[in-house]
């Protein structure tokens, strides 16, 4: 039982990280109707920025904070230099151009930092454990990740639903021409959304840096999962993306651990060892297929 | 007059092709792009270093190395192998990190009567029933290294062990290789997703079991992730950590002192004491600013083997080089190597531990020899 609760917690942490990445993609794909495949590269940019600044300054917190403007600027620049010319093109051309961006970013990082994984570790102040359940020590840093993720989720929700700028974003999504005619600077608004999306992905990358290896191409597997998130959640819905990210985080975590155990009850050892992990890694895609069958528009499609 | 010119031209052309025939062409295939690019670039460094040490010649003949990037994709590897054979007309194809890529190019290369020398991959089929006389390994068979780990843990009296490996062919080979020598209790056998980045869920499950020891096979970036998260979750107080192909010069620069004391088995270590290895490690460090990995050492050995084969036989013909290599006595960073009947090396396997060198850089040190002159389990199934 403790193990089950602990795994729920692991799933929550994975889900919250996934939401940070999917949030930007929700805004870009859902609201601006732009297929941006290089979003995973923004995760990588954030992780590299965080690791590099941390190693130059020797201060982890400085790396964490300064990586945010770096990824914001990177998103802003990409939008200004490339993306704005592609809004009116069809999706296939957007896919091709942004796939090219993935290759470009991977090579850029390799030229700049070399092909080896970068060293990025936790400061001693974040390296200890707390007991979340009796006899269950949990790394403090993972709690920090959960906290930051939940705070960002709340922030994005309040911004989109309660502020005037948020209203403009929603209006601009529904009808860009009409919103522009009402005097809203749509070009700037879109650019800012784009840069903010990049900054959230970058933040996720910076937080992942001390947990995983910071290396070229690290963002691609995360991009695929976050695409699944926004499809399940309903394209364009921030609330849907949040719930879907948590669901996927938990389903993936619990599936990885408990599915092989369950199969061992039914099948013999070696068959279960082979089928269990294979089935577990398909689980989120099966979930996506099931959701699409019953609700093709996703679980929480945006209203309006 | 016209006839004379023609014959002159013909002689000139013959001369050109005769000169070309003296150039040894080696197609070197490895992964230079993507997340595994670090491994490929270390191998490329080592090949270039070997060519420097040999004065740019192989067996006294002019040499040309053609590097190709397989992008870790079997279909790309197959296309590149065809290109190397048909349009570049290479004399030897060498390299290849991944077992599935080696399987993809094994038949096309060996059947074209061209030598194929692996610098890393050692899948069981090419060691056993599907072996071919034109294939040589300058690395190891997949089972050997984890088998040595199994033997070491068996001998040190480890009662129960928890096994973790990625869910693909090499992962399963590694764990079955380990279990061929380890006879204690297997407390858990977990297969993770290939390329998985977060292992917190697996670590939580492991903590619930509290095994005496944990043995993992997680190469490259997966290994960095796993060990980092292992340390961050305080698993050292729960279980003793062992690994194969996880702590090396690819992962140590990113793990630093986080990997100190971790024990693993391997056929090579930077501190192996022989003249070839000492020179290789010193020059590699001087030129590329870091320790070479075992991948680099095996790439270096591959070039030494080609040089040796041509020098000894005096020819770059496949049959002549093949006979020279099969007869053994090949110089390498692991000492002199003799080939088994399936053309895999008969060699020692060492227990290594991660230590800090005098400059404060993490590296591995040989603790003991687990297997002496070890032969893989598949050689008996190989009939040329």
Q: Largest interface, and how many residues on either side?
A: A-B, 49 and 39 residues
For the secondary structure, the number of strands of chain B is 14
Strand content of chain A: under 5%
**Approximately how much helix is present in the residues of chain A?**
over 70%
Any idea what the radius of gyration of chain B is? 22 Å
Oligomeric grouping of the chains = heterodimer
First-to-last CA distance of chain A = 43 Å
Layout of strands and helices, then pairs:
The complex is a heterodimer of chains A (304) and B (384).
Chain A: H1 2-31, H2 39-57, H3 60-81, H4 91-113, E1 129-133, E2 136-139, H5 140-162, H6 164-174, H7 176-181, H8 186-208, H9 220-233, H10 238-266, H11 269-294
Antiparallel strand pairs in A: 1-2
Helix pairs in contact in A: 1-5, 1-8, 1-9, 1-10, 2-3, 2-4, 2-8, 2-9, 3-8, 5-6, 9-10, 9-11, 10-11
Chain B: H1 2-21, E1 23-30, H2 37-53, E2 57-58, E3 61-69, H3 74-86, E4 92-95, H4 99-111, E5 115-118, H5 124-127, E6 135-137, H6 144-155, E7 160-166, H7 169-179, E8 185-192, H8 200-209, E9 213-217, H9 221-232, E10 240-244, H10 252-255, E11 263-266, H11 275-288, H12 294-313, H13 318-326, E12 338-339, E13 345-356, E14 362-374
Parallel strand pairs in B: 1-3, 1-4, 4-5, 5-6, 7-8, 7-9, 9-10, 10-11
Antiparallel strand pairs in B: 2-3, 11-13, 12-13, 13-14
Helix pairs in contact in B: 2-11, 2-12, 3-4, 6-7, 12-13
């Amino acid at each position: 039982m403790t193990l089950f609760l602990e795994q729920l917690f692991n799933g929550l942490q994975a889900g919250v990280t996934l939401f940070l990445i999917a949030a930007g993609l929700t805004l870009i794909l859902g609201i601006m109707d732009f297929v941006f495949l290089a979003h995973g590269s923004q995760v990588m940019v954030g992780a590299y920025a965080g690791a590099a600044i941390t190693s130059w300054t020797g201060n982890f917190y400085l790396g964490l904070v300064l990586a945010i403007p770096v990824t914001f600027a990177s998103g802003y620049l990409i939008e200004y230099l490339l993306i704005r010319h592609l809004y009116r093109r069809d999706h296939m051309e957007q896919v091709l151009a942004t796939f090219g961006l993935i290759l470009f970013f991977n090579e850029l990082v390799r030229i700049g930092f070399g092909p080896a994984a970068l060293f990025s570790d936790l400061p001693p102040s974040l390296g200890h454990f707390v007991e979340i359940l009796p006899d269950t020590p949990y790394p403090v840093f993972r709690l920090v990740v959960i906290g930051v993720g939940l705070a960002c989720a709340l922030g994005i929700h309040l911004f989109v639903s309660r502020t005037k700028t948020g209203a403009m974003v929603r209006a601009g999504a529904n009808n860009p021409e009409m919103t522009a005619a009402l005097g809203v600077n749509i070009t700037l608004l879109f650019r800012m959304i784009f840069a903010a999306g990049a900054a959230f992905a970058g933040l996720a990358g910076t937080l992942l840096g001390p947990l995983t290896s910071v290396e070229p191409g690290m963002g691609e597997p995360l991009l695929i999962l976050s695409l699944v998130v926004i499809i399940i959640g309903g394209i364009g819905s921030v609330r849907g993306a949040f719930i879907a990210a948590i669901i996927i985080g938990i389903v993936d975590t619990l599936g990885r651990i408990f599915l092989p155990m369950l199969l061992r009850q039914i099948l013999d050892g070696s068959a279960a060892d082979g089928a269990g992990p294979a089935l577990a890694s398909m689980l989120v895609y099966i979930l996506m297929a099931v959701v699409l069958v019953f609700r093709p528009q996703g679980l929480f499609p945006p209203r309006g | 007059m016209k006839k004379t010119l023609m014959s002159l031209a013909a002689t000139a052309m013959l001369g050109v092709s005769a000169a070309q025939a003296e150039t040894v062409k080696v197609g070197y295939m490895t992964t230079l792009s993507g997340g595994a690019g670090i491994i490929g670039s270390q191998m490329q460094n080592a090949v270039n270093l070997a060519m420097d040490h040999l004065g740019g010649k192989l067996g006294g003949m002019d040499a040309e190395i053609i590097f190709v990037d397989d992008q870790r994709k079997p279909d790309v590897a197959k296309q590149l192998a065809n290109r190397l054979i048909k349009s570049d007309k290479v004399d030897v194809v060498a390299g290849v990190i991944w077992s599935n890529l080696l399987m993809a190019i094994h038949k096309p290369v060996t059947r074209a009567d061209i030598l194929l020398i692996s610098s890393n991959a050692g899948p069981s089929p090419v060691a056993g029933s599907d072996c071919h006389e034109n294939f040589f390994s300058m690395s190891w068979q997949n089972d050997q290294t984890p088998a040595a780990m199994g033997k070491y843990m068996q001998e040190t009296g480890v009662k129960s062990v928890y096994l973790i490996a990625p869910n693909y062919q090499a992962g399963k080979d590694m764990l079955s290789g380990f279990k061929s020598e380890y006879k204690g209790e297997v407390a858990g056998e977990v297969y993770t997703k290939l390329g998985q980045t977060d292992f917190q869920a697996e670590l939580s499950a492991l903590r619930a079991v509290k095994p005496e020891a944990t043995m993992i096979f997680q190469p490259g970036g997966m290994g960095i992730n796993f060990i980092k998260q292992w340390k961050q979750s305080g698993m050292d107080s729960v279980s003793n950590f062992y690994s194969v192909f996880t702590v090396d010069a690819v992962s140590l620069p990113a793990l630093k002192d986080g990997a100190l004391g971790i024990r693993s088995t391997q056929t090579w270590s930077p501190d192996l004491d022989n003249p070839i290895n000492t020179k290789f490690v010193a020059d590699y460090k001087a030129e590329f600013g870091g320790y070479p990995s075992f991948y680099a050492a095996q790439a270096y050995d591959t070039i030494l083997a080609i040089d040796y084969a041509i020098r000894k036989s005096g020819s770059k013909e496949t049959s002549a080089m093949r006979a020279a290599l099969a007869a053994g006595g090949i110089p390498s960073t692991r000492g002199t190597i003799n080939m088994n009947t399936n053309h895999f090396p008969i060699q020692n396997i060492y227990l290594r531990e991660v230590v800090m060198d005098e400059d404060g850089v993490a590296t591995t040190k040989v603790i003991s020899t687990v297997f002496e002159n070890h032969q893989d389990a598949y050689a008996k199934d190989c009939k040329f």
